[in-house]
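Lab notes, practical 5.
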Amino acid sequence: MAARQLDEKTVTGLVAEAAAAPSMHNAQPWRFRYLTGDRALLLRADPERAMPRSDPDDRALHIGCGAALFNLRVAAAHAHLCPVVRLLPEPQDPLLLAAVELADEAGRPRDDDLARLHPAIRERRTSRHPFAEKDLPENVRATLQGAAEREGAVLFFPGPWHAETVLDLIRDAESRDALDPETSEDLVRWTRLGPEADTAVDGVPEYAFGPRRRDGKAPVRDFAGRRRVADRGTSTFEHSPHLALLSTAGDGPAEWLRAGQALERVLLEATLADLATSLTSHALEDRALRLLTRDPASGTGQVHMVLRLGYGPRGPATPRRPVRDVLEIV
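Output from the prediction step:
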């Protein structure tokens, strides 16, 4: 029996939900191509949205695309489809990151655990606001660690000494930026100030910057830098922020894509657990600093993201490119 064709509305909806994923500076570095005859969505990197200063190896680009791939898997499961994923299917085409066959459920078990995460796709936010000084329940930590493990990654909650080391490395990265203005070129390119913030379809608009940190140790990147932002106040952030480090065993394109999928699975689980989240890769943009963030006990693994978790406002939704700009149907 021939598989039914997917209509354009279904494909468009899947891509819209995939594109709700987080990415470095909200650059949204992905493109999709739907092959009607094969019922397959191809995920491609968009090199025009790469960040040569901050991400010269395209590691963060792959992580963002991996997060979009995970959202696509969730959206497909919710639509009663079975996504069959191949990572890096054509080695001679490094911009082709994944091929996803959208098979019918008939004869295949539905992944209910993926479908369960669907409501969180649109609820997930990056919050650059203070969180409460409140512990995370152990069962919530275990759920988040299990989410990372299911995608082939490790989520590690550092102890006080290790967490302080990570915070020091982030502050070191901030100091390096201050001494070398060229390192901020990517950040300036992808921030949206003034009237531009109201019409932006990508980047980080000023309404999502959050307040300036007056006190506290939470690792929240200041996207304004030395630029003035009207009506932006200051606030005290957590003195003991809850950090988690996401890592994989290896450090190459396939591992980066797995890390992105694990990251998004963790973020969606956190959203369902009513946690606010923010991300920082500031200290991870420099390989020398990145190696120092690893678990000091084992000294293994490659850390790809520092997550900040807690209870507080989730922050506003950031803009997204229209689906017609990122999807081609052939």
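Observations recorded by the TA: The chain has eleven helices and 13 strands. The radius of gyration is 19 Å.
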